[in-house]
Specification:
- The chain is an alpha/beta fold and 127 residues long.
- The protein has one domain: Roll (2,3-Dihydroxybiphenyl 1,2-Dioxygenase, domain 1).
- The protein is 17% helix and 35% strand.
- It has 2 helices and 8 strands.
- A hairpin with a 3-residue loop joins β2 and β3.
- It starts with 5 loop residues before the first strand and ends with a strand.
- Keywords: Metal-binding.
């Protein structure tokens, strides 16, 4: 199977809120919507599957563990101007886990989507 698209699943508490967040703030477009259980949004080659508690991905595991949002694994989105992106998101009330950090490869910051899933904005060095 050949597909250039990268598919990432995020568990979310509220699918509609997640759609609004990713489309309004991070440049995604909405594709499929089956509220309240599931939707997917896309930005370039990234298809983000937003699975709510009512989705099949939200069902308990055989040992009783229940999948949920959050954690530290994250999608990594490139930006041209991290300072402008951060200012715009802060003005919209988006919560951040960190301040902008500079490393050898560039600058990054981690923010939370409405369910607490992390999203990293990254500006490569030299941009």
């Amino acid at each position: 199977m050949t597909d250039e698209t990268v598919h990432v699943r995020y568990l979310v508490d509220d699918v509609a809120a997640a759609i609004d967040f990713y489309t309004a703030h991070l440049g995604f477009t909405s594709n499929t919507t089956f509220l309240p259980a599931f939707a997917d949004v896309q930005r370039g080659n990234l298809r983000l599957l937003l699975s709510g508690p009512e989705s099949s991905a939200g069902r308990a595991m055989p040992d009783g563990r229940k999948p949920g949002p959050g954690g530290w694994n994250r999608i990594h989105l490139l930006v041209d101007d991290i300072d402008t992106a951060v200012a715009k998101l802060r003005a919209a009330g988006v919560p951040f886990r960190s301040d902008v950090v500079t490393g050898p490869g560039g600058r990054q910051i981690v923010l939370d989507d409405p369910a607490g899933n992390p999203v990293e904005l990254f500006q490569p060095a030299g941009r």
